[in-house]
Every structure is written in structure tokens, then in C-alpha cells.
Amino acid sequence: MEAFLIEGGIKLKGSINISGAKNAALPLMASSILAPGVHTFKNIPNLRDVKTMAILLSHLGAKSDFGETLTISTDEIRADDAPYEVVKTMRASVLVMGPLVARLGHARISLPGGCAIGARPIDLHLKALSSMGAEVNLHNGLAEVKAKKLRASHIIFEKVTVTGTENIMMAAVLADGKTILENVAREPEVVDLANYLNEMGARIEGAGTNRIEIEGVKSLKPSVHTVIPDRIEAATFMIAAAITGGEIIINNAPIKYLKTFLSHLKESGVSVRMEDKGFKVKGTEKLSSVDVITAPYPGFATDIQAQFMALMTIADGISIIKETIFENRFMHVPELNRLGANIKIDGSMAIVKGCKKLRGAPVQATDLRASASLVLAGLAAEGITKVSRIYHLERGYEKLDEKLSTLGAKILRIPDKLP
Ligand code: EPU
User: What is the per-residue pLDDT across 247-297, written as a single tens digit (0 to 9) for each?
Assistant: First the structure.
């Protein structure tokens, strides 16, 4: 096990590149099941979740090769199951369900169960597949889905679900007839997946709006695709600049995906502007508190809530942060309080009263984005902060410590004795 030792209080300076988006890479990799042959993905981030997806694909019979690009060969898909050992370490494993049913006519997916941030059922994925003619059986912790040939359906999702939209979009590309999906997720990662499916020969319209139409085709052909940059990583680095009162340039920031976040960041007094070299973020001496309500895209992303809360701990005044997507996404609050923050939780609301200074302490990471918020707080805190269980960070941030170091942060990776 490893931990980060962070000496806080250093203003970050310099420029960085943002990696490919984890939440785009994972469904893209799963989509390779749909078309036999060799798929090529550029700008794939080097992350633990990406490796886990490659392990799952290899269990199914595919061969992944990580070089400058990732190639996945899917000529042979032998197995139809996502085993519990894989699903429990990465819920996005459920993304192979739609493609497996479309390609093989059957899939057996271990039910993910609850996770650190909430219950996160997959009932809406299963309900949609069943309305496309699949037989769905739940037994022994498994979802068993069978359909000789999926047929088109008109599906209105009860809740906006990102991987649900992606799973059903992948299931529908090879179905008979025209599938209509309503109240779908509009996330840029959904659009990136639709773009790749269309590059393979699918006929999808409307991705990025709340209604997607998919005209089923007979077959798809592998193609070459570049993964979009990670908007959550970009937002995390922007907050790193803001929280340390520093000034950084992000060379390839996906600004168009970050409008709501940027309007909140600007409202807090942080200066953000496009320059020749890239997107410049400059902290302010006088940070103001801003309220946040998380919402599906294009709203304020739940995946940036914890990091923005870290920023608000040192803002002037009181910030109310309401989490509407996941029921347990405040695990970072007691840890931020250990660093001297003043945050109270009231149901789905966190009331953050800004303090003058955070002070270093040992803290423990609980999930990916919570970990990022603790690193950010550590960068701002006076003295030394030790963040344990950083393996959570490795799921979704490529070389976070190295990138922060190039911006001048004092961050060390050390062995940690914690269980
Ligand atoms: N939900 C249901 N039933 C379903 C599916 C979802 O009730 O069948 C509920 C969930 O419990 C949640 C809400 O709907 O309350 C939205 O969940 P969603 O399905 O959109 O989440 P997800 O697809 O499992 C993806 C991202 C998450 C991100 C959420 C929300 C990937 C691989 N994961 O999860 O990313 O937080 O959308 O934007 O795309 C992260 O990267 O740290 C992360 C957790």
C-alpha cells in the first residue's frame, strides 16, 4: 500500500496536458465486442480501471495490446460473463452486458452491489434490455440476459443514467429496427461512444440531447478513434491552481464540456481565460463562497463535487453543496474536517463554512473523487498532509503526483503500512 505525503502552501505554476477521459475509454473498450477485428484507440489513459477493463475483455476472449495506442482484437469472443471478482473492483464492468447480448445473444453479469458512494443498482439497464425482448433472470448474484436477436423498442429512462444509456445504445446498434431512447444521459462521454459506434457503421442520431434514435444495422466494422480529454481531471487541476493561489496553463482543456463548473469557479473569484498557449487559471487572494447543486450533464458534475468542496473550505462565507446523484458522496467531509475545515452534513446537503487556513494531518481516501479532494486540500494546508489509500486515485488520475510535481507541488509517494 502507498500514501502521498504533501507539504502544502506552495502556489502551483506551470503548464500541463490532460489525459484521455476514463469514463469515455471504458465504454469505448466495451464497444469493441460489437465488431470482430482489430480496434485502435488513441489517447487512452494509463489507469487501473482501463487495465481492469482489458482484463475483463481478455477473460471474454479479446486480446488487448497497450503500446502508443491501445489495440483490441475481438475476432474471438468465447465467454459471456463478467465475474464478481472483476465487477466488484470496477462497476463499469457492466458495460460489457449490452455488447455481449448483441454479439452472442447472451450475457451473465455479476450484480455490482453497493459501493462507497451509493447503492447504484443496474435495474434500468435490465428493464431496457427486457423491453428489447431479452429474457432477464436474476439468481445467485447474477443477471442472466438472453435474446436470440434484440428488437427495437421505445425506452423512456426513469432516471438519467450514464452507463445505462451507453449499455442500451450498444445493445441497440445491432437490433432489428429503430430504437428510441428518451431521458438519456447527455454526457460528452456518451457522445464520444456514439461517435465511435457511428465510425464503425452504426446509425445513431441525437447523442448529446435527451433523445437518441438508433437504426439497427446488420454488422459493424472496427475503426480507429481518439478518446476525448478528461473533463474531470481538467477541473481537478483548475481547482489545484485556485486552492493554492497559483497560476497554471492547461494545454488541452476540454473547456466546452466544463461550462457549468467554470461559471462556479469564476463566481468564486478565480480568473479563467483562454490564451495562445492554452487555458489559464489563476487563483485569487479573496475566494468567495459559491453554492452548488450537482446534476446530470450539462449540470454541475457529481464527479467534481468533492474537489470543489475542498476549494470552498477556504472561501469567504458559507457554501451550500447539494448532492443529487449519489446518496453517499460525502465521505470526504470528515476527512476534510480533520484538516481544519468546518463542514456539517444535513441529509443531501453539506454546509461549508469557510476557514482561514487548513492545517496538515493524516487523512484517508475512500473513493476516487474523495481522494482527489483530500490531495487538493493537502496542497493548500499548512504543514504536512498524509493521504492514505491512494490506490483509489490510480483508478482515475494518470500520474497525478508527477503532474502536480511538474507544477511545483511537494508531493511524495511513500510506502504505507495501513491494511
Ligand atoms: N441508477 C439507478 N438504476 C440504474 C442506473 C442508475 O437507480 O439502473 C441511479 C444511480 O444509483 C444514481 C443515478 O441513477 O443515483 C445516476 O447513476 P448513473 O447510472 O448515471 O452512474 P454510472 O453510470 O454508474 C457514471 C460514471 C460515474 C459518474 C456517474 C454520474 C462511468 C464509468 N461512471 O456512473 O463516474 O459519477 O456516471 O455522472 O461513466 C467516477 O468517475 O468517479 C464516477 C463514479
Answer: 999 999 999 999 999 999 999 999 999 988 889 999 999 999 999 999 999
Calculate the average pLDDT of the chain. Answer: 96
Reply yes or no on whether 355 is catalytic.
no
**pTM metric for this prediction:** 0.97
Q: Cell numbers at residue 62, please?
A: 479479446
CA 78/CA 97 separation, integer angstroms = 14
Q: Is 92 in the pocket of ligand 1 (CB under 6 A)?
A: yes
Pocket test for ligand 1, best of 23, 170, 187, 395 (most atoms within 8 A of CB): 23
* Ligand 1 neighbourhood includes 52 CB (under 6 angstroms): no
- Please count the other Cβ atoms lying within 10 Å of the Cβ belonging to residue 84: 16
CA-based R_g, the chain, Å: 21
- C-alpha cell of residue 229: 480529454
Positive/negative CA dihedral, 380, 386, 390, 392: negative
263 closest CA partner among 220, 308, 228, 233: 308
Catalytic pick from 115, 136, 180, 355?
Answer: 115
CA angle 180, 162, 101 (to 5 degrees): 65
